[in-house]
Each structure stands twice: as structure tokens, then as C-alpha cells.
Amino acid sequence: MTAAELFLTGDARADALLAADPNALLIGMVLDQQVTMEKAFVGPAVIAERMGGRLDVGAIAQSDPESFSAICAQRPAVHRFPGAMAKRIQATCQVLMDRYDGSAENIWAEVTSGAELRDRIASLPGFGAQKAAIFTALLGKQYGVQPPGWEEAAGPYGEPGSFRSVADVVDPASLEKVRASKKAAKAAVKADRLAAASG
Known about the structure:
mainly alpha; Endonuclease III, domain 1; 11 helices
């Protein structure tokens, strides 16, 4: 199951790929770390363009690591840490080939609960508990992947209209709300650290 339409980047071509190809959505989530959401989720379209116009996880998995790293580092780089992310993307694509017949859709095709979905996502390279919860929320809210208990498995990110993550970005206004929410969350963490240090 894929989404009919997404607005995650504001780039129509990149959003169309994310909506049509679950592998692109997963790789976008892999990249969603220490860069803006838009930058992360445009990444799969950029990689596809640089590899002949198609996002081929088998080709990515089998690519020479240095060559694929160069593809990711080519300006504009797909991430602020292109070398590290190239390795993570290749590792993710290798798992897709080894366990899921080359399709991210098979990660959730037969799950029976939200917890099973979240745990499968959490087992992927680079997916900690928070990222797995956010991706579970994104799949549930925008991709129609809603096994029983998916909202609970996604934690606070599964709450309707929470505007805490990419899962709630559907238009420019919601993107701004999510940005503001993330900024406030970072400020709160910083304030807590300062308070702890001075206490």
C-alpha cells in the first residue's frame, strides 16, 4: 500500500517518488537526522537521479561503497554527513534485499500489530526507538499502514494532530507547526541540561 499524495518536501517530484515507492520513503527516514526534514526526504529522488533515474535498492546494496559514497557526496550532497549516511543507506538496502525481497512494503505487509511493525522498523540499521516510532506514525497517518495498536506503538507521534514529526506534515502550514514543535522540544532539552549543570 502506498500513499496517493504526500507533501513532505515541497518538491513535487520528490514527494511523488515518496508516495509511489515505499523504499524511497524508508530511505528518506534513514536520512532524517541532523538535517531538515525536507532535505532528508528529497534525498531518495536525488540518489535516483544520480543512478540513472530509478531508485534501485538492489543496485545500491551491490554498489562499491566508495562509488556510492561519491554519489551521495556529489554537490549538493544528500546529507551533511554523506559518507556515514551512504553506509547506512547501503546497509538498509542490504537488509531489504536479504529479508524483504527488495521491498520496504514487505516490512509491514503481514504484521499483525503496531508493536510488531515498530519492532521490525527498529531492527533496521540506524533506527532507534524514537525514529521507529516516528516512522510507524508516518506509515499510519499518511501511508494507510494501520495494524491494530499502531497509534499506541507510535507513542506521542501517533496522536492525531500532534505536529511533533514528519508524520503530521501534509502542507506548508503543518510543516511550519512541526518545525516550531521541534524547535521548542530542542529548547526544552537544552534548558534541562543547563539546569542540571548549574544545579
